[in-house]
Design brief:
alpha/beta; Rossmann fold; seven-stranded parallel sheet
């Protein structure tokens, strides 16, 4: 069996994938990877995102149903779980790839955040994970031995100024994952976050200064930035039975960025900049 046809890692497994928007989004690539590995799943995003994106094309390609869900509304999340239970029965994995900051979109500085909008950021980007796991548990849809993965970013640990209140949201997201991982571990259910490197997606590209963040990470990482497809394969491994004892972890998928002090390439760039300033160029 070769990579293109898959390894059957998710054969017989079912799940829900939140957050796919277009073919550049990580959730979209995760859906393709899960299909390749034999999984069945439902796709979900906010109603407004469904109007702006092209999720129907992904649904047709993967044989998945599309179920709208506004994760800011508890009743929507509960209704989605019941709908999935009706269509697929119980499930084995969930991908949470949901994040949005109105403050970032409006370019509001961190010192001048609109607190009403900040509440929306935290609710949509982090508290939504709590709602998703809670109602998956309460509706009895999540199988013992299941796996929940939420996409995070190193902004939860280190400050990236242009990321603004999303730094706070990712820190809360990771805390929710640890809390629920502790509470569901007795059932063999894993809850982890994947801290992905800056990735060229529609959502990422909408952040002011994203190009600088991407280039910096690319130069700092010994392996360079992983792609959305690389991240998708990593998520597949976390949904599979090969990682059944990995839980409550924030797993860095960033080509070594988090551990590397400084790279030779970046050192050379800084040296060249210093030299040019010395020469008055």
């Amino acid at each position: 069996m070769n990579y293109e046809t898959g390894f059957g890692l998710l054969k017989g497994k079912k799940g829900i994938i939140f957050g796919a928007l277009d073919e550049r989004s990580i959730a979209w690539r995760v859906a393709l990877a899960c299909k390749r590995e034999g999984a069945e799943f439902a796709l979900s995003n906010a109603p407004v995102a469904l109007r702006l994106g092209s999720l129907d094309a992904l649904a047709e390609e993967t044989g998945a149903s599309v179920i709208p869900c506004d994760v800011s509304k508890e009743e929507d999340v509960e209704a989605l779980m019941l709908k999935v239970k009706e269509e697929l029965g119980s499930i084995d994995f969930i991908l949470h790839a949901i994040g949005m900051s109105p403050n970032v979109r409006k370019s509001k500085p961190y010192e001048g955040l609109d607190y009403r909008l900040m509440q929306q950021t935290l609710d949509i980007s982090a508290v939504s994970l709590h709602k998703v796991i809670r109602y998956a548990d309460e509706t009895g849809i999540l199988n013992d031995g299941g796996s929940v993965v939420a996409l995070s970013y190193i902004g939860a640990q280190r400050i990236f100024s242009k990321y603004s209140d999303m730094n706070d949201a990712k820190a809360l997201l990771e805390s929710v994952a640890r809390n629920y991982g502790s509470r569901l571990g007795h059932r063999g259910i894993r809850v982890n976050t994947v801290s992905q490197a800056p990735t060229i997606t529609s959502a990422g590209s909408g952040i002011k200064g994203f190009d600088g963040m991407y280039t910096f990470a690319e130069k700092m990482s010994p392996m360079g930035n992983p792609t959305a497809d690389d991240c998708a394969d990593y998520c597949v491994s976390l949904f599979s039975d090969l990682t059944r004892k990995v839980t409550m972890q924030n797993l860095y998928h960033d080509g070594g960025f988090v551990t590397n002090g400084i790279s030779e390439e970046l050192m050379q760039d800084l040296f060249d900049l210093f030299e040019s300033k010395q020469k008055g160029e």
